[in-house]
Structure formats: structure tokens, C-alpha cells
Amino acid sequence: xxxxxxxxxxxxxxxxxxxxxxxxxxxxxxxxxxxxxxxxxxxxxxxxxxxxxxxxxxxxxxxxxxxxxxxxxxxxxxxxxxxxxxxxxxxxxxxxxxxxxxxxxxxxxxxxxxxxxxxxxxxxxxxxxxxxxxxxxxxxxxxxxxxxxxxxxxxxxxxxxxxxxxxxxxxxxxxxxxxxxxxxxxxxxxxxxxxxxxxxxxxxxxxxxxxxxxxxxxxxxxxxxxxxxxxxxxxxxxxxxxxxxxxxxxxxxxxxxxxxxxxxxxxxxxxxxxxxxxxxxxxxxxxxxxxxxxxxxxxxxxxxxxxxxxxxxxxxxxxxxxxxxxxxxxxxxxxxxxxxxxxxxxxxxxxxxxxxxxxxxxxxxxxxxxxxxxxxxxxxxxxxxxxxxxxxxxxxxxxxxxxxxxxxxxxxxxxxxxxxxxxxxxxxxxxxxxxxxxxxxxxxxxxxxxxxxxxxxxxxxxxxxxxxxxxxxxxxxxxxxxxxxxxxxxxxxxxxxxxxxxxxxxxxxxxxxxxxxxxxxxxxxxxxxxxxxxxxxxxxxxxxxxxxxxxxxxxxxxxxxxxxxxxxxxxxxxxxx
Length: 577
Known about the structure:
Layout: H1 8-24, E1 28-31, E2 36-39, E3 43-45, E4 48-51, E5 57-58, E6 63-67, E7 72-74, E8 79-82, E9 86-94, E10 97-106, E11 121-125, E12 128-131, E13 136-138, E14 140-144, E15 150-151, E16 156-160, E17 165-166, E18 174-177, E19 181-189, E20 192-200, E21 213-218, E22 222-225, E23 231-233, E24 235-240, E25 243-244, E26 251-256, E27 260-262, E28 268-271, E29 276-284, E30 287-296, E31 306-311, E32 322-325, E33 329-331, E34 346-348, E35 358-363, E36 369-372, E37 377-380, E38 386-394, E39 404-415, H2 418-424, E40 431-436, E41 441-442, E42 446-452, E43 457-465, E44 467-472, E45 490-493, E46 501-507, E47 511-519, E48 524-533, E49 536-542, E50 555-563, E51 567-575
Parallel strand pairs: 2-10, 12-20, 22-30, 31-35
Antiparallel strand pairs: 1-4, 3-8, 4-5, 6-9, 7-8, 9-10, 11-14, 13-18, 14-15, 16-19, 17-18, 19-20, 21-24, 23-28, 24-25, 26-29, 27-28, 29-30, 31-32, 33-34, 34-39, 35-38, 36-37, 38-44, 39-43, 40-41, 40-44, 42-43, 45-46, 46-49, 47-48, 47-50, 50-51
């Protein structure tokens, strides 16, 4: 079992929220229904209400999401559809307020859109794609037999009209976009078929061929293993209006991990023997270009663990999983809307980064993103430029570990839209990578940042997986004016707990005591003690249940001891079942 660590800033900010909500306002969001248990494919109407500071219930639009995100989705009419078996929570959110109930989805995944559809049939997802010429998109096609079971098989793909693109490899569901226009993609299996609406649009901000300046670097993006080579000679050509500019004095530099030293004038790179991801930058006048260099360990550990990535669309549909091993890089590409905002990114899992086989679910963080299917756009809140959420489940376990810490930081790149930065007035050099911890945004756990303003990518070393976003540096949340006493006054044993735990504390005098359990969202789960207590040692037990007697979902919780409404002590708990 991996250890979970939370920064002092995170805990401080949670405590700050506890005080703020109770002291400043009586506003609340409440889900007006009990915990939910459904079979896969079933639906239920969910309900919640917002009460303002005067105690009046207001008619507002509540945003719904699930944790993990693949369990299901709530539509605009408030109907929740169970998409994937598993356990978690359903979350209702309005502004900074939220509430949750336990959520359990049972059964085996089946692609039954409604109870009246006849089988067998062919189903393709997504049902609509929008691309530019040259883009590739990975589609998922399923044959569903008479029993409603998904069966892997091969399909015949047709593009109508044909000039819109093609499927270069007939054995894969990868579409390559061609000329601009509108049409459909058809997946056929005998007499059965399903279609995808297709729109191929012109490239935006296309540079004029008669007025362009660019630098081309050779070699391009490169992966090398330690021991294979000790140096790399980089060369660059500067072109003005498509013509080579002879004698251009290129200036070379290296950003990112310290994998070597590059000669500023010649472009000769000497590898240092360290692994990592670096950017090789070539500059001339006001123009620059970048390429990636990934150096990996050539001494493979006898035990190499595997990683399986499931890409999940907002409706819960999973694309075919991708599996690889430690030491490899996962190139993000060919994903359909809305996951297409992640295309062009990369994650490198160095040897030794994990001690076990893991499964990763990757999806758009619904708590920060609005997906507009009509315009085929993703809009993030809180001035987030882009973001991705990772849920990690160790193989053999049925519990999400969040955050999931790596022994060695991963190298990750994410793509951002330069046009969005311009509209927000954001300088790319001011971007940073943050972890979204439901209480704010912190950079603890990200390091060695580099921004590529040519390819519109941002690079960082990532110590753990949870929700990762790209924002301005000024967005980092710091709360330094509240001190939490970190001592052994509050003792919890056992921790982690599976059935129950004993919480002990010692008082030096008679005190008003408030002892309660909170979840990661700052919501009060259960009050264990709220009364005056005399001097001495006191022990209270918690059996993992909520205030209404329901079992809490496995995960991370906080035990908060408040003395005389002044002194606060917080202890982290891990609940396993």
C-alpha cells in the first residue's frame, strides 16, 4: 500500500474552509435524496436544493458530477444514467458549495442505450467529430450480440464523401482527416451499421506562404537510452519566406531536466548520464523553435510493472484501453472530442516509478469543465487553460488511490491553445502546472517546468496523479495566516482503518471539544463529540459510518479536533474496506 501525503498548505486550506463556511454564511447545497444504488444502464432523477444566507431555497442550476467520473452522468434534465460498475459518490455543486451521497453501480457493462433497442447491433462512439485536415481520431466500435454483450470484431469503414479522409489501416479504427467538408463515417458488419457525423474544417490562423519565418531543427523529437550514445549533434535551418537563410547564427539552449549540456553556438549536446525530458531550443533574432529529447534508463529492472490507460468520454463510454510498461512513454493522440484537447501531450513512466501494476482512468475533470457538444468545445472554469483527471487503481484492488504517488516523478507534457491565452491576456511564460485539490490549486509535487511557446506545450515533472490543470502562476493558493499545531495530542490507531479506529486526545484543562470527520471536499461526514470534557485522556471510536449511519466510501478523510473554538488539530485518516 502506498503512503498518501498531503501538504501543510492543503490541510491549512481545508481548515480555513471549515471556519469560513460556518462563520461567514449559512448557505448550503443539499442533495435531497438518499444514497444511490443502480444497475448498469439504469436511470434515476436526482434532486438537490440551494439555500441562501437568509434560509431561503433558491432556484439555481446545480452542477452534477461523479467521483470517479466514469460511474455515470447527469443530463440537463437532472436524469442520472449509470454508465460503469463501481463505487464512489455523486456530487452536487453550486459556486463553492457542494454535497455528496454514496453511489454504487452494479452489473456488467452493456451498451444498451434504452430498453427498447433490439440486438444485435453495431455501435460507434463518439457520434460526432470535428477535425482539421491531417488530424487523426480514434473511434470505438462495438458489436452487441443478442444478449446485449459487447463482442470484439473487425469492421468495414466507409468515408462519405471519400475526399474527407480515410482509414489508413483497415484493422484499426483510426480515421485520418482529408479535405474540408461535412459528411459521415460508416462502420459496417454484414447487414448492421452505425454512423458518425463528420466535419473537417480549415486550419485556423494559417500562415501565408509568402510571409513566413521559421526555424527547422534536426533531429526532431527523439528518445534515446543511456549507454547507446553519449552526444547528439543538433542542426537548424532558418527560412525566410520559404527560402533558406545562409549564415544564420543559431543560439542553442536546453530547458527541463538536466540530461546534458549543449554548446550554445554549435548545437552539440553532451549527455550527462541522467534520465529525463528536456527541450532543445534554437533561437535566431526574434524567432525560436523547440524539439523534445527523452532520455530513458537502459538498465531494465528485473521486475517491470505494467500500466493500462482507459480513456473515458464524459458520457462514460470507454475507448479501447492502451497498455505499456515502465520505461515507456505514452503519447496522447487520436482521441475524439472532448478528449481531443489532450492530443499532442505525452507522459513518460520511468523505470522504477511504480512497485505494482496499475490501471489509470483518464478523463476531463467535470468539476472544472463544461462540454458544449453543439459547438464541439470545452470551456474550463477558474481561468484554467486545460486539465486532465487521473484515477489510479492498483491491479487486484477495487479502490481508487488519490493522490497516487510515484517513486520517481513522471515527465508530462500538456498542450494549450495560444488563441485562448490571447483572449485571456495571458503570457505563455506565466503558465504553470497545478494540482486541483478541491480546496484550491497548489504546485506542490510539480517541478522542472518548461514552456514551449512554439508547439504550445508545457512540461513538468509530476510526483503524483490526481487532477492536473494548467493555469497562470498567480493562481497558486497560499494560506499562511492559520497555524495548525502538529503534535501527538491527537492519536488515531489503527490508521489506515478497515472496520473501526480509536481516536485519543489529552486535555490539560476543562475544554469545549468538537471532534468531527470531514471528507476531501470539506464536507462534514460525522460529529463524534461536541461537549465539554475534563482534564485528562479521552478516547472516541469511529466505525467509518456517516452521520446517518451509512458506510463511507473508501478514501482519504480528516479528523478535526477543535478546542474552545480556537485551537485546531487535524489528522489524516485512510479508510479501506
